[in-house]
Structure formats: C-alpha cells, structure tokens
Design goal:
Two copies of one chain form a homodimer. The first copy, chain A, has 443 residues and is an alpha+beta fold. The first copy, chain A, is 39% helix and 24% strand.
C-alpha cells in the first residue's frame, strides 16, 4: 500500500467515518462536501428520517474508538410499540433483555462524526466544494466553491465516493463501458411530522419505536433527546389513499383522526407541518462495479436502500469496517478494492432485498396475530437453541458477524420451517410446551 | 395540437424517420446530430451490426411512403442457414413462402433516410452539434458545434430524444425525481468480421441469415449488396472460451478452425480484422417515464435491447408509427404523450425480454433436434389453423398488428402447449398425420 493520500467525496455519515478510519492508518485525508459546514449553519440539508443505530453500526464505531461519544446522543429503543386503530398499544421486544436499537438524529450524529474526524491533524474538511468533473483515468477532480466561485483541482492517489444516492463519482462511472446500474422508486413517498415534548416530557414511551401499521401505509415515530418524537408518514403517491388525495385541511384531519387518532391528539402543528414539509421519494440504487482504477464507491453511493430495516447507515458503517479489514489482509490497492467489492456486493444486495420486504412486516404483519405468534415461537426457539435458531431480525440487527447475505439465506430457511410449525394443529395453545427439536434437524 | 415545431436529438435511424413523420404533419423540424454528416464523410461512427428489417419496420416506412426506396438497398433472407460443426448446413425457413427479413447496412439505410427527410423543406439537419445542456422546465437546449466551437441555444415547443442508448435527454431525465432507470450488460461482447466477395460473387447463399450456433457463443453472417457478408462473433468477455482467452494468433486460428472451419476458409483478413476491430458490449436499457413536460424519448433512448431478435430498429420505427397514431387520436400533447408512453412501455419491455431469450434460440436451440421438430409441428399447425396458431417468431417478425406484449403472452401459452405435444409418444414419426385440434382448444 504505497498510497498514503485519499480524497473523500461527501462529509455525510459514511464519508466522515471513513475519514477517521483512513486517518487511523496514517493517510492524509481530504474530505470535500458541497454543503456548508453543518457545525456552523446548524441546519442540515439532507434526508432526515431519524436513524436507528444497531450492532453493525456500533461495531464499526467501536473499531475506531468512538462508540462511547455517539452513545451519549442516542436513545435505546427495546421494541416496537404497535398502535392499533382502536387506540390500544402493544410492545413487541426486538430481542433479548437489554438488546436495543438506538434512535439518533442524523444531523447531530453527522456533526459529532465531523468534529471527531476534524480533531485529527491528518483530516481536512473542505465545505461548499461542489465536484464538477472527475477524470477516472487520472483521478483528477475539479471543484467549484459555491461561496467564492473559485475553481480548484486536485489529483489524489485514491478517490472515495461517499457522496450518497446521487453520487457524482457514480455518475462518472455510469458513463464507462459495462457499468451495470439500476435506480428505481417505490410507489410510496414519506413526509416528516412532529410530536412535540409537553413541558419537556415525552408524550409517548421514549424507549420504543412507535408504529401505526395500516397495511398500505403507516406512521412511525422515533424519540429525540429533547422529549419530542420525529414522525414519518409513509403513504403511496397516487391512488385512493395517497398523498395526491390529501389535498384539503378537512381531508388531512379526517385521515389522521380515522387512522392515527392517538397520535393526532399529540400533534398540534400537524396542518402547518403537513403543508410545509415536502413529500420525499424512496429510491433503491444498485450498481456494479464499485471500483474504477483508484476510485471507488461506498455507502449509499454504492447501494441506496429503502429505510424499512433501519440498516442503510449501518450498512455504510459496516462498509468502512470491512474495507479496513481488507487493508489489513491485502497489500496492493488492486487486491484490497477488488476483494472489498466482491465481498460487499452480495451483502448490499441482500440488505436491499430485506429492506424492501420489511415494509410489509412493519406496515401490516406486526398487527397480524399469526405473525405475532411466530415471533413468540421464534423467541422460545432462540432461548432453547441460541446457536441453532437465531431469528432473522436478530441476525440482521444484533449479529454483526453474520453477513447480510447469510442472514437472508438462513431467513428463507426459517420461513419454510416456521410455515410448518404454524400449521401444527393446536399450535396457538401448545407452543409454550413444545421443544420443536425435530424442526431444527431439518435445517 | 397548437405546437408546430419540434427539435429532434439524433439523426440516427429513428430520429431521421421521426423527422419525416413530423414533417408530413406540417411540423417545422430541426434535427441535431453530434456526428458529422454521414452523406459527406461516408464513414459511419455508430454501432454497425448489420440490421434485419422486418414487417414492423416496413409498415412504419410504408406509412410515410418510403418503403420502396429502402427495398432497393435491402436483401431478403428467407431463413436461417445453420452451419454445424461438421460443416453440414441446413436451411430453416423463417415463415411461409415469400416471407423474409431483409438485410440492410445501417450506414446505407441511415444515409437514405436523411436524404429523404432532407428533401422536405420543413426539415433541417444540423450536424456536428453536441447537446451540452437541456433545461427540462423551459425546453431550452444548448449546443456546441464541434467544428466551429460556436455555442447556440434553441427553445422548441417539443423536444424528441432519438439520441440512442447514451441519450443526453435521458441523462437529464435521470436526475429528476422518481425516474426509474436500469442499464445492464450481457456477459457477451461482439466483434465484427468479414467474408469478402470473390470475383464480385457471394461465397455463401445470399438470401439467408447464416448462423454457426455453438452454445455459449456463435457466429452470424448477413449479406451485403457488394457480395460480401458482415459477420459478427458473439462470445463471452471472460471465461474458458472468451475474448480474454483469444490473445494470440495461434489461439485465434485454432478457435476458428475448431468451431467455424467453413467460415474460416472464406475469411482471408481474419487476423487483421480480429486485431483491428473492437470488442463491443451489449447493453439493455430500460427506463420510465419517457415523457417530461414537452420532452420525450423514443427508440433506443427509451429502450435499448440486445440484437438477438433483430427487432431493435423495428421497434424504434414502430414507435414512430404509434406516435403518429396517437397524434391522430388525441388533441393535446399531454394526452398524446401520456398515451404514447403508456401504450409503448409494455411492448418495449416485452421485446427486450424476447430479445434476451432469443440468444439461447440462436446460439443453441436451432441446432437441437427437438427444437427443429417443434418448428416443423408449429409450421403444420399454422397451415392448418392460420388464425388460431401463429408461431411466436411469426408474431414478432411478420405480424405488425399483434403487439410485442401480446406476442410474448401468446408465446408463453404456446410453449406450454408444445411441451405437451412434444411429449406425445411417437410424435417424431406421427406428427405429419396429426391435427392437434384438441391442443388448440386448450388455448
């Protein structure tokens, strides 16, 4: 590894974490970000669905010794709080005692990562720098500064595209021969809303991820540090029940009263926010290869996924950790990058598929009796046979040493077995006495 | 239809034909092409697989009265001539007596279409004009002339992107929200080679499309007017038998002797051509929507397909005819364009799928006894029940009033029926006496 300087495009979550990883290895790192410095503006012009940090993310943070810093701005959520149409609620635990996913604000997290990275002399951030051109043969990058209008070029040894779903580096790669590329949108959009704090207090259980599952659409809410919740309404763009059909004050109020009455009563700014906040789209992006000479993609630039498994950021952080492993294991950049993309691509594809499927789980199945029974039986099996039966959600969320593609593969086998178990006559009454041993052997 | 001026990007086959269609309706048409005028340079810098014009293409040409002009530069091919490894050949007819597909040189055809279009005062061609920017809100187009370096802008009522697989208009659309886009490459590449004329004479049967089917790869040859054949070798990029492994003179000669001995003996320039001609990639492109305000895509810009059904150009020409029908049937551009894309998209998807599948038919099945028997039985059924049984190849190639998606749909049903018929004990001997009536009723 002769190369000791790298330019990272994008100071988002993954770009900032990658800069810390490279600096730890002694690289000189330049990070170029087209937006202003988040630390100064205090406004965050990006996607802002509240994030859920889980074990893959934590492991990647731990490896560079910054997990504790992030824990301070995170709120553990031990389960889903399902809100039924009749106002009843039900807590469904995510895992074993103490296992949690962590709610964190994208803006706060990003600011913290940049501050941590910037404390290293080897890392330099360049804000307001829009990348205008990339020469993939020479690794020459051209920028224009949006405040000074000044042009600059740089010629680093390595270029890392951590510049998100609309990556400039990926656009350049797309014009090269034999680059496979796919972007496609869900029929659903999303809109952010707020449940504010009341006298500084949370108005819902803070240590849970709240879901109002309504089949073709849903509302979710994640806690913030200040006692508020950030809510996200996922709804089709078009059709009978859709954003297109929520066009009047009466419509909106009626829709919320009918479907989310308990939340509606906690949302005094609903109408203002509904009018003011945009409907954002949900995109899948997949591509290959991720590497072109000495330029390569990471995080959302390489694999943008829908948010329904809470794994987009975690997958990007895991990219950083795996890339670091590759630098431990191989000596030349050819080998490091080739093994990185070969190893990560199937996992990126697997979590993309899992995330798409999980929309159905979140918006529909969590309210389904059979599904709830399945979860209970799986919990029992996991307790009885902790090494032989790990539920899919646990593999994805709490088992960072099981890869996403292994998790998907094992999850499909589990589905088949659980189908059989759920069809056992009397299973509803008897599951707590059964040991399911014969079903394990089929694995 | 208040708008009477249109700018077409691309003077390729579809752009040139579209200009004729629009001029016939009284539009003022400007066609912008980044390459030099093909009529002057006499060199043609585009994809050059020899093309096969079939009934969909002819119908689109007839509707603007230019089919006869094109027939003069086309050579009918009544069937496939299969060349077996042992040197034997076998002619497999494409359809009924007189039904043919027509070999035509892309360069000659394009030149003829431009000449025909240019004879209309309403059409103006602008060569060497590279489109640098498209504003999808205002329909403002910016060009730079590659010979004069002069910049120009134009602001037409309508913009038609007929600018092929690497469409500039589609690139602009790709940056708009909720634009679905997919480009993916086959593992195969292709290389063009030549079987020259001998004393001005064809060295193979001229009225056939020659195929050397070898499973994972194949060679094909289409006749030219001058007595030569343009050959195309389709071969994987990587692997045991691949372009990557044909790296020495000995390799190449041995490969051709082993697999295409009869052709090899007719190719005196093989080694020079093999070295000089590039390996080109094979891309699928699909996207949606095709329309953004008053700008829209057509032909390869909207749907690039692989060449194995000989339908890429025919589908693009059919786009022109269907668009013209929509202008007959609707009055506003909103309705015309919306109905155009809604109607064409499923057909573009269907021919893309059919084309991918046909690689297996061309490179493998045509040499397969069971497949040949199937073709014979289908021929008999088509003769007995011409309205009830139309073989898939005939629907796609000779039945322009059956849409591609109908053809695909009916073809799948036919597959299921033929599976049953081919499993009838003794079918090999008895098929000529059978009437297969009971199988028809299953349709």
């Amino acid at each position: 590894m002769e190369n000791k300087n790298i330019s990272i495009l994008g100071a988002g979550l993954v770009g900032a974490l990658a800069s810390i990883y490279f600096a730890k290895r002694g690289f000189k790192v330049d990070v170029f970000e087209k937006r202003p410095d988040f630390r100064i503006t205090n406004s965050y012009g990006g996607r802002s669905i509240n994030l859920a940090l889980s074990d893959r993310g934590w492991l990647a943070l731990e490896q560079v010794g910054i997990a504790e810093n992030i824990k301070k701005i995170s709120i553990p959520m031990y389960g889903r709080m399902v809100h039924y149409q009749d106002g009843q609620t039900q807590l469904q635990k995510y895992g074993l005692e103490g296992q949690a996913i962590y709610s964190v604000s994208r803006g706060l997290l990003n600011t913290e990562l940049i501050t941590l990275a910037d404390s290293n002399d080897l890392v330099k951030f360049h804000f307001n720098e829009k990348c205008e051109h990339i020469d993939l043969h020479t690794n020459e990058l051209s920028f224009v500064n949006s405040t000074t209008n000044r042009n600059s070029t740089i010629n680093p040894d390595l270029v890392l595209g951590a510049d998100g779903a609309f990556s400039v580096l990926r656009s350049a790669m797309q014009k090269t021969d034999r680059f496979d590329y796919h972007q496609w949108y869900l029929p659903h959009g999303y809109k952010e809303l707020t449940i504010p704090a009341k006298n500084g207090e949370y108005q819902l259980e803070p240590n849970a991820l709240h879901i109002w599952p309504r089949g073709q659409f849903m509302l979710i809410a994640l806690p913030n540090l200040d006692g508020s919740f950030t809510c996200t309404l996922f709804l089709p763009y078009e059709g009978t029940v859709s954003f297109a059909n929520l066009h009047s004050t009466e419509n909106i109020i009626q829709f919320f009263k009918d479907n989310f009455l308990d939340a509606f009563e906690l949302m005094p700014q609903l109408l203002e926010e509904f009018e003011h906040n945009p409907v954002s789209s949900l995109v899948n992006i997949s591509c290959y290869p991720w590497v072109h000479n000495r330029a390569f993609l990471i995080g959302d630039a390489a694999h943008s996924i829908v948010p329904f498994y809470g794994q987009g950021m975690n997958a990007g952080f895991e990219d950083c950790r795996i890339l670091n492993d590759m630098m431990d294991n191989y000596n030349s950049w050819e080998d490091i990058l080739e093994n990185f993309q070969k190893s990560r691509k199937p996992n990126a594809d697997a979590i993309a598929e899992l995330a798409r499927r999980n929309f159905v789980e979140m918006s529909e199945l969590v309210a389904n009796k059979r599904f709830q029974l399945r979860k209970k039986i799986e919990g029992r099996m996991n307790t009885l046979y902790p090494d032989q039966w790990i539920p899919l959600y646990t593999m994805v969320t709490f088992s960072p040493h099981i890869s996403y593609s292994q998790a998907l593969h094992k999850g499909l086998k589990e589905d088949a077995i659980m189908e059989k178990i759920l069809n056992i006559p009397g299973i509803e009454e008897n599951w707590q006495e059964m040991d399911f041993k014969e079903y394990l052997d089929n694995k």
